[in-house]
Amino acid sequence: MSLERFINQAISSWMSSEGPDSDIVLSSRIRLARNISKYKFPTLFSNEEAKAVVEDVVESVKNLELKELGELELLKMDELQPLQKRVLMEKHLISPHLAENSSFGACLLSQNEEVSIMINEEDHIRIQCLFPGFQITEALEMANQLDDSIEKNVDYAFDEKIGYLTSCPTNVGTGMRASVMMHLPGLILTQQMNRIIPAISQLGLVVRGIYGEGSEALGNIFQISNQITLGKSEEDIVEDLKSVVGQLISQERSAREALAKTSNIQLEDRVYRSYGILSNSRIIESKEAASCLSDVRLGIDMGYIKNISKNILNELMILTQPGFLQQYAGGPLRPNERDIRRASFIRERLNMEN
pTM for the complete prediction? Predict the structure, then answer.
């Protein structure tokens, strides 16, 4: 395994594999925040402590009992170019915080890219497990196994009454963020999403864009995740999320059925217009590309388009991001140059399918 593979290969296993309910749920993720008790938190630690944290975490995973993961690859942030870090972020393998703010940060990646252990992000350790489709319980099981294995070698900052101690108070307790990435064009087209989002918030969950907090919901893709980390067990938090996501899946399918009954020809026309734009454009901005890709993916799921893989939305949403476009170009591109290259990539990918 090499850095070049993680950078140059656009498709992670969560993008290319089909999990349960994958027509609506693109991926499921568990992230656990942990700190090592003998060191100051990353907001206060010295450079020497930061280096020691990396060494301790790397040493602790050498004897991981999860043999199916294979050898984990260590990537140090200060050894990567800004463009390389951006590509890893666009693939959801590292967080924006680690990419932008951590001089002494690092990341351990599994070969299939389903497991990422970020070091010296906002906390000393961020364990991330990313599975295709609606597999949030399976992701939690994997994260807990990794967590238990690491804890055999380091002492976590933990309080008997509060739980795991974290740099940000909103993560104290379980230190867990459980999130599901969903494609919800039916609820957008039937104008139900604006009503649903406040209702979800009242249940202790939050709705965000494709790259989490502060990001935009491009291509009708939303992240649904827990807000509460204190006062509930990890299992209870996941069950609450599963209940809401299950309802959203049902509502999205109902919305698609309603569109097929009441606006079938209009919806089919919308799908093929978007397909035509993607197939023929010579220049396309990221928002328009995301919107058209969402329409095409909906058309595939509803049976209008039959000769294209349903994973094309996952793939091209990543492949046409600024970092990837510039990585393949071999250097920086101006916005207009990125729009030209984005259109070219999409045409080539669709031609491969045909």
Answer: 0.90
CA dist 351 and 296 (Å) reads: 14
Helix, strand or coil, per DSSP, at residue 38:
coil
Q: Pairing mode, if any, of strands 106-109 and 221-226?
A: unpaired
State the binding site: 27-31, 92, 126, 177-181, 208-213
Task: Name the amino acid, one letter, at 220.
Answer: N
- Within 263-334, residue ranges assigned H as helices are 264-280, 286-301, 312-319, 322-329
Q: Comparing C-alpha atoms, which of 93, 97, 126, 84 is closest to residue 112?
A: 93
Q: Cα 123 from chain centroid?
A: 19
Taking residues 30-38, what's their average pLDDT? Answer: 96
Structure tokens at 134: 């609606």
Are the C-beta atoms of residues 23 and 310 closer than 8 Å to each other? Answer: yes
The per-residue pLDDT for 354 is 64
Angle, CA 205 vertex, CA 219 and CA 94 arms, to 5°: 60
Distance in angstroms (rounded) separating the CA atoms of residues 1 and 123: 26
Confidence label for 315 from pLDDT (cuts 50, 70 and 90): confident
Under a CB-based contact definition with an 8 Å cutoff, are residues 183 and 290 in contact? no
Distances (CA, A) of 242 to 88, 229, 331, 344: 28, 16, 42, 39
Q: Which residues pair with 64 in a beta bridge?
A: none
41 Cβ contact partners less than 8 Å away, ≥ 6 residues apart = 35, 123, 124, 157, 167
Enumerate residues 6+ apart whose C-beta is below 8 A from 5: none
Binding residues for ATP: 27-31, 92, 126, 177-181, 208-213
Average pLDDT of the chain is 89
